[in-house]
Automatic annotation (TrEMBL):
One of its GO terms (cellular component) is ribonucleoprotein complex. The keyword Ribonucleoprotein applies. One of its GO terms (molecular function) is structural constituent of ribosome. Binds directly to 23S ribosomal RNA and is necessary for the in vitro assembly process of the 50S ribosomal subunit. It is not involved in the protein synthesizing functions of that subunit. Pfam families: Ribosomal_L20. InterPro entries: Ribosomal_bL20 (IPR005813), Ribosomal_protein_bL20_C (IPR035566). This is Large ribosomal subunit protein bL20. One of its GO terms (biological process) is ribosomal large subunit assembly. It comes from Candidatus Wolfebacteria bacterium GW2011_GWC1_37_10.
Amino acid sequence: MTRVKRGKIATKKRKKILKYTKGFRWGRKSKERAAKEALLHAWSHAFRGRKEKKRNYRALWQIQINAASRALGLPYNKFISGLKKQNILLDRKILADIAKNHPAVFEKITQKTK
């Protein structure tokens, strides 16, 4: 019988894990067990981070809208309730962008909501 060399798939799997850990510090980039553990943590943090990013941006937009609307004499909560009553369907991302880049347009929107 001919000799059978084993472990092709296992080696491939290990190499793949080590490829993902490129740039990690100390033994976590080169030692298989440490690399696997580091990746489990890194990917869970990355998943959580993607959710947090959405929260952070929404909070930022609210702050920007509040600052712009208060400058025009209308607090954030009154501004948002006015938008809903007037049936103006602009989301916070767009409103924050308008407030920052097109203050004249934002002023007209604020006048509508008063």
